[in-house]
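PT: before anyone asks, these are the final sequences, not the draft ones from last week. 696 residues across everything. Please model them as a single complex and drop the result in this thread when it's through.
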Amino acid sequence: MRFFDLWSMSSSNLWKRKVRTILTVLGVVIGTASIVVMISLGLGLSESMMKEIEENGGLTTITVYPGESNSFEEDNTDKLLTDELVETIQNIDHVDVASPVLNINVIGKYGSYENSYINVMGMTVEALEKMGFELKEGTIPQRDVGRLQFLYGNQVLAEFYSSKGGSSYWETGELPDIDLMNDSIFIIFDADAYWNVQYNDGSAGYGDDSGTPVTPPKKYLVETCGVMAGGPEDYNQYSWNVYCDIDLLTTQLKKVFKNKAIPGQPTTSSGKPYKELYYNSIYVNVDNIDNVTTVQKEIVELGYQAESNMEWVESQQRQYGYIQAVLGGIGAVSMLVAAISITNTMMMSIYERTKEIGIMKVLGCDLRNIQTLFLMEAGFIGLIGGVVGVTLSYCISGVINIVVNKMGTEMQLSYIPFWLAAIGIIFAVLVGMAAGFFPSLRAMRLSPLAAIRNE
Amino acid sequence: MAEKKEEAVIRVKDLYKIYRVGDSKVRALNGVDFSIYKGEFCAIVGTSGSGKSTLLNMLAGLEKPTKGEIIIAGEHMETKNENQLVKFRREHIGFIFQSFNLLGTMNALENVALPLTFQGMDKATRLARADKVLDLVNLKKHKKHKPNQMSGGQQQRVGVARALVVNPEIIFADEPTGNLDSNTSEEVMNLMKRLVREQKQTLVMVTHDNHLASFADRIFHIKDGKIIKIEDTREENKEQE
Ligand SMILES: Nc1ncnc2c1ncn2[C@@H]1O[C@H](COP(=O)(O)OP(=O)(O)O)[C@@H](O)[C@H]1O
Ligand SMILES: [Mg+2]
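LR: through. Structure below.
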């Protein structure tokens, strides 16, 4: 038989038994829709998890902190972060980049605007390149410029307040009138000294316990090399910070503080700074997600603290895995029920058509054609059910997302990518054909004598 | 006789069919031997339960013999598997049923074209051929009718057309007029006889009616699974002339 004849014969057979076909298709519709919607929920959840991870820094990043000091000696520098340690970590297998991180809080000034709490992070240019900032304008700090350059996070601008008493962005919704890229921003590195001057100006006569001379600290013009992409409310791990080259930063700080201790650096019991610079943290980038845990363990074994997103991600993944399994299971059960109902429908139809099948065999219809005829009928039921089911899934998914968004979350809880829709339909057809396989064998094996017997 | 030296289209040798019903055995066919020659119209006559249908079913490859050989158009039927039997029927055999067995959802034309569909013929060609054959059986006006819109005689003529449409070498008919009144029966018998004569086809018909059997060239009388007599009406006719 020609394919088209098989096709039109089996589809007209379904058409003849409209009500039964529709009822059977309905089962497949429900089965397909529940599987697709269930998987879409799982996908939506893990999608939003991935987004969250990106906001919290990449998956391949480990941050190293000083080891917990277990001795009570004050000038214990045993587990502090040194260049030597950076070197050691760099040499661990699978470590791509290890960079010291030095951070210091500075004050930024532009005209009457002031940002009194800028967190400056000094890192190697290599590491900055690795972090993959998205920039609105400019570049990340360059290697060979020889002067200090700042890369501003997208939320830093909003923290500039007008010292004339104007209100902040957070109250008015208006950003300060500063072009970070082109305006000259002055930076005060010695924030303590600055506050001392402010304090003494404001309430003269109050005794200064340290007795330091009250000269205002020097302001430095620091060039901006770039600004990160994003608005004042788009948070990510970097958006509050300012990044710069660590070597240039230390040079600058040594110049500013001379013999004094740089804020945040440990001091000897007599209050003197150490010769060596200790870092606040070490940024470590690992070549592959799979190696993060190993590297992290190795660093911890060295006696330092190491943090990564891995543990959190793993627990999240496990959790979403459970949710997906449960949801998928519900879908699978309804699909199984649909499959059973297809088998049942096909069996009924074969019992009714025993005579017809017998006649076809007497008239010389190929056994394989008979089997194909019934497989196609079952496949048709699956196909129609699959197409309608996927369409229904898109509707349900839309409704779920609208409801969830009304409740105030912005995430897309249900997400049906094209491949899921395609797989849903293919799966429904396969389930239909699998459910029709046994009946089709039965039809093939029916005796042609059924046609001869007179009822 | 010169005719008997012609090639046998059907050759049956020592054929047995034994059914087991519980502990007892039913010998539906109990040693049957005969030959049917090309272009012959043969009738198998006997009382109900004598084994006529069993014999015909085995000739058409619908049932396996317990023992014996059936050679049709040079091929052994008893050694073929079901697939091969279906293929053989599709290519060599036409079948006319007692209860017409037309498909209720198809009209006359489509019913006649059905065996051609099984041969993989394209739609236009097979409908054209079915159309011609329906003209042959005088059903010009009923081509678009569904079976339930036709009389028994008309339905059986569609049945005859369906058997003839593939232009088979052999046509089997099991009580083809069993569901028809006597006038219509004669009509259909005459039609079948005329058509197979014109196209030099071999027709094997089963009936319990001696009168209807007398339309045939040769009559096989069967009783309790054995052929007890073979009558040749052509010799009688010749003698009468
Ligand atoms: N499938 C079967 N199982 C058991 N006995 C059968 C079967 N088919 C036919 N018979 C028996 O074989 C004998 C011949 O049957 P059948 O060929 O149908 O007779 P006829 O067509 O001449 O009336 C009968 O006795 C019948 O009961
Ligand atoms: Mg019978």
